[in-house]
Amino acid sequence: SEVEIVFNDIKKGESLTREFKQTFALEIKSKKREDYIVFECIKTIAGFLNGRGGSLYIGVADNSDITGIDVEIGRKKLFKSLDNYLLRLKDIIKNRLGVASLNNIEFMPIKVKGTQILIINCRESEHQIYIDEKDTYLRVGPSTEKIEGPELVKFSKKFS
Length: 160
Prior knowledge:
Elements: H1 2-12, E1 18-21, E2 26-27, E3 32-33, H2 35-50, E4 54-58, H3 82-97, E5 105-112, E6 115-122, E7 136-140, E8 143-147, H4 149-157
Parallel strand pairs: 1-4
Antiparallel strand pairs: 2-3, 4-6, 5-6, 7-8
């Protein structure tokens, strides 16, 4: 089943095309929204779009523990409902990466072992993706790196 496939993918750990984040915006310890956490997710999505594509699993810890997105969703939490969560994430991605980036992104909420997670599937983009119209990131192995200088010139040529 789809759930078993997802569970088995999670157990394989992070890779060139798979990244785990416990939350999209919430700092677990302080229980506050933190811009650096949002940025890490946006950077990963941009890296996948500029690379070969990939999937960002939200609600999964780096060690493959399925923690769920419920810490961010609920009456007194950052997001009021799953619908509100998906809408706000889409808006943040649109604002930071551009509306065209959404053509290559699919949101897939799924329950794994009774726990709600969100998979953001990203297909390789036909155009270069910038964060806030200035920085370009690329997925390199199990991490996402900023491309600058001569490397950026070389990378940009692949889209022209």
